[in-house]
């Protein structure tokens, strides 16, 4: 009875946590809906008198609004990708690993389990990266999210404002969300400012719209300044081909040692790693395949490592490579690393 009571309590707490995690998203949604009402109705329809100005303002606003909401929705509802099932360890290997108490022996067991996987980064002790919670070998740039309680491919961070992990599957959408959020705030502030002045200098009569215009300007400016720093930081990360957790906070450790620029291929190639090969889709929140890498492996700056990766691409998974992908993982076949 006590055990079932504890399980029920644990389930209840998890349920409350899931509900509360949507609070930041709901707050943002309410602010956005209010900004839509204040701009479209209170400013454009009730305050502006010039018909041509109304049309221009409304068209430009709705284009920006749709792009902003589209990218925000994609950031929220695009689920992060988890490692392929080939990275999961077998029951036999798990027992071997758990029963072994010597660190060096555990390191040897992990190396043996990862010998046919394209993993090149290591822990500080030069061991293969392993997740005790998910019981799998971690692909390069993969991290375990303590909030979602899963390993996420190329995890950048867990963002409470989208209630989602930002990683390989949705990093492009998150960057576009920041971009169009800035445009949205800047557009509102720029077009509202002159009417803010007119209200407070008496050129326009006092009305309910006056307070909506005041708060529109204040909220737009506040969000613009705060988003500008976050946007600038992520632009810097993209230019260096880094992620917040994997490379920005601490240098990834390769077989040749730590190197913060281990995945840096140059500005243009780094852009293609996030936004894909097809440039005409770069500014749209649609999936575009990156030039190289599928979330599990990435080209590297190091000549030796890059050569190994290119050799690895020549083969598939080996004897059981025909296994179908598990749900929620990349659909591409994963390469086997050759020992050279």
Automatic annotation (TrEMBL):
EC category name: transferase
| Record's catalysed reaction(s) | L-cysteinyl-[protein] + hexadecanoyl-CoA = S-hexadecanoyl-L-cysteinyl-[protein] + CoA
Q: Which residues form the Palmitoyltransferase DHHC domain?
A: 128-245
Q: Where in the cell is it found?
A: Membrane
The UniProt entry lists membrane topology as: Multi-pass membrane protein
Residue stretches of biased makeup (Acidic residues) = 316-326
What does UniProt give as GO cellular component? Golgi membrane
Key words, A-Z: Acyltransferase, Membrane, Transferase, Transmembrane, Transmembrane helix
Which InterPro entries does this entry report, sorted A to Z?
Palmitoyltrfase_DHHC, PFA4/ZDH16/20/ERF2-like
UniProt superkingdom: Eukaryota
Start and end residues of each stretch annotated as Disordered: 314-340
Recorded hits in Pfam families, A to Z, give:
DHHC (PF01529)
Q: Which residues cross the membrane?
A: 20-39, 55-73, 173-197, 209-233
* E.C. designation(s): 2.3.1.225
* Comment on protein domains: The DHHC domain is required for palmitoyltransferase activity.
* Family the UniProt entry places it in: Belongs to the DHHC palmitoyltransferase family.
Q: What is this protein called?
A: Palmitoyltransferase
- Species in which this protein is naturally found: Latimeria chalumnae (Coelacanth)
**What does the record give as the organism's lineage?**
Eukaryota, Metazoa, Chordata, Craniata, Vertebrata
What's the name of its gene? ZDHHC15
């Amino acid at each position: 009875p006590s055990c079932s009571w504890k399980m029920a309590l644990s389930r209840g707490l998890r349920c409350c946590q899931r509900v509360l995690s949507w609070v930041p998203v709901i707050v943002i949604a309410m602010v956005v809906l209010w900004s839509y009402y204040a701009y479209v109705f209170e400013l454009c329809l009730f305050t502006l008198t010039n018909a041509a100005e109304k049309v221009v303002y409304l068209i430009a606003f709705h284009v920006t609004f749709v792009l902003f909401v589209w990218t925000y929705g994609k950031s929220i509802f695009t689920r992060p990708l988890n490692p392929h099932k080939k990275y999961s360890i077998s029951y036999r290997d798990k027992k071997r690993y758990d029963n072994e108490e010597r660190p060096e022996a555990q390191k040897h067991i992990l190396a043996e389990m990862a010998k046919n996987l394209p993993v090149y980064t290591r822990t500080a002790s030069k061991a293969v990266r392993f997740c005790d919670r998910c019981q799998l070998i971690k692909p390069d740039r993969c991290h375990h999210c303590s909030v979602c309680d899963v390993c996420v491919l190329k995890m950048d961070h867990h963002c409470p404002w989208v209630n989602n992990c930002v990683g390989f599957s949705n990093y492009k959408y998150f960057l576009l969300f920041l971009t169009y959020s800035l445009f949205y705030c800047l557009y509102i502030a720029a077009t509202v400012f002159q009417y803010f002045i007119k209200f407070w200098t008496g050129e326009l009569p006092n009305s309910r719209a006056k307070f909506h215009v005041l708060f529109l300007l204040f909220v737009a400016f506040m969000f613009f300044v705060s988003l500008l720093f976050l946007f600038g930081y992520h632009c810097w990360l993209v230019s260096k081909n880094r992620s917040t957790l994997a490379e920005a906070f601490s240098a990834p450790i390769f077989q040749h040692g730590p190197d913060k620029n281990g995945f840096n291929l140059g500005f243009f190639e780094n852009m293609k790693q996030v936004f894909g090969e097809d440039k005409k889709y770069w500014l749209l929140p649609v999936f575009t395949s990156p030039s190289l890498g599928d979330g599990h492996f990435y080209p590297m700056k190091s000549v030796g490592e890059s050569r190994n990766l290119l050799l690895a691409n020549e083969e598939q998974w080996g004897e059981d490579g025909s296994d179908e992908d598990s749900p929620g993982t990349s659909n591409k076949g994963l390469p086997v690393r050759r020992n050279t």
